[in-house]
Amino acid sequence: MSFDPSLLHSNGFANGTGVGLRETGVVEKLLTSYGFIQCSERQARLFFHCSQYNGNLQELKIGDDVEFEVSSDRRTGKPIAVKLVKIKAEVLPEERISGQVVSAIPNHLDGKSAPGQVPTGSVCYERNGEVFYLTYTPDDVESNMHLDTGDKVSFYMETNKHTGAVSARNIVLVKKKQMRCQGVVCATKEAFGFIERADVVKEIFFHYSEFKGDLEALQAGDDVEFTIKDRNGKEVATDVRLLPQGTVIFEDISIEQFEGTVTKVIPKVPTKNQNDPLPGRICARINFTEKELLFGEKDTKSKVTLLEGDHVQFNISTDRRDKLERATNIDILPDTFHFTKEAREMDMLSAQRNHAVRIKKLPKGTVSFHTQSEQRFYGVVEKEAMCASNSKANVSPSKGKEKDIEEGVIAYEDCGVKLTVPYHLKDLDGCVFPQLGEKVEFSISEVKRTGMQSAVSLKILNRTTNTKRLLGFIATLKDNFGFIETANHDQEIFFHYSEMCGNVDNLELGDAVEYTQAKGKGNKISAEKVTKIPPVGEDISTNVLMGKVIRPLRSVDPSQTEYQGLIEVTEEGEQLNLFTFSLLNSSSKGQTYPFGIVGMGNKGDCLQKGELVKFQLCTVPQTGQRMACNVVPQRLALVECVKDQFGFITYEVGESKKLFFHMKEVQDGLELQAGDEVEFSVILNQRTGKCSACNVRRVSECPKPVATPRPDRLVNRLKSITLDDASAPRLVIIRQPRGPDNSKGFNVERKLRTASVIE
Predict the structure, then answer these.
(1) Carries keyword Transferase (predicted)?
(2) How many CB atoms lie within 10 A of CB 26?
């Protein structure tokens, strides 16, 4: 729209000599170059051009009171407003009100907004138990001070006589809100500590009485927030509270890695006058500029010893507080050893007194202490090697570790010369020990450093012996001994860990082994030269039967004389069809089958008498006997209680009616609650003799609590109450809600809220 001020009618005051009638109104609409005014004395809406406003157009906004004269447009003849002057709003009685900022004007909008739109904030105050909210603009704040949420302020209240809107004016800051600071606990003493602040490079003192939380859990490195107060001229931290770990961040570390050269190393022994926490220096070319970066002891990626001239790669860390840059995650580049003149040696890691530095890992097998001959030699055992366990049977195998107390000797000929060479049991091929006078084949190994020779890779030739190797299965493992279940699964034999050929730690329940049977003190039978072998297969039927344990294994009930457990076939659980059942004529109801440790689905499970199980049948190759195998218990019980990291299941094992379980044994990471139905396995702790549950799996959740219906007496009472009953309780509305401007209801735009009192 184009507008020409020369086209105005003078209305009796041409050339500015006359005095026209002045009216008042409210700016209703305001655009870039024009707007509209709503008259106060009459129902009229007048156009005005911004050139007719006498004042700073930037201060004019919608809702402002203005005074103007009425003229007419010569072109259209329509009335328009000219000579506009802003009227100062009416101020309520001179009474300053104390309040608080509840919504501050954002910093990025302070004084900057679209034409006709002014950013606003809000304050609140309390009168007679009611809380009122008022808006304010940046012009309403004295001295152009920026207010923050929570600041205590005082102000006057004014009402726009045309719109009835109430707002705050002449706002003065009374008290700034205390800002909360963040930091990291860097030191703790007996009754106080220090916090490294996140806003400035500075530490601040705090007393333990100012810590709001569990003081026992407070430790160096914890993130905290606090309020700073001045006491005796010094800043101290008060109201210290813990923050989630990782909240406070001091530095930003670059993603990009850089390469540089060490120009100054950290002194091994710091001098008395050294106060620099970052004494190291690295020179690098970054963005085509030579730059020297600092680093300290904690900035090396590994504990490698740095030397001047080392080629390194690193990240750059920038402190958020003072923008100080330093090198961190420093690691030596592999090619650095080609440039330095240091003497390098090769060795394996061992417990030595010499101090090795700047260690570089080599491929496995690069370093060897021995040289082994390719030629094979033949000789005769002149002296048997004795194992440490043979002389000290009570020594724990973990302490012995198959060390020889006395080495053996082999006599052999080389180029017509008779020689002898020692050997050790650890150098045997297999677990068969050579005996005196036996012929053996071997190679010779020589130690590079000492030149000492020994026989290795020994094989026994043409052994003729009636010693029979027997098959068995690991049934029990104790601290330094165990028991082997025989191949017939009908008894168990003792063995000491010293008789185990190989690492005892690799043994598990149910493992197949070979052994030699011998008699010890008191004619007691024990197993010797125990060797672990691959699993032994058995003929297993595909049909699954249901049964009940009528006798557990002797490892579960040591008081019984029989080693084997016994299962009776029942008709509970899965039902077999007629064709399958006819094939299993020996598996009718009431038929019993023995089982051993190999037949357990979980070798560590403790089957109790009376438990229901699923199982299959297998045939023992040695005897043809049919036994139960793949025995899996069918246990269902309720969780009685859960306490932090453990709980109890309502299940009777021995004399205890509760079964302990740890939360780490719960499958799928579920959180169990009291009343949940679970299935589980029972294991026996060999040391304590107590049982606990493992492999706990939730079958169903506990039923959710149902809301209790209202008692009949209350229902009947409510039915008997009528609106006409004067003695009945009644709800009476004293007044309808109104705002401070006497408007009805709650006006969201003005952010006015009241609290009504209901009797």
Answers:
(1) no
(2) 19
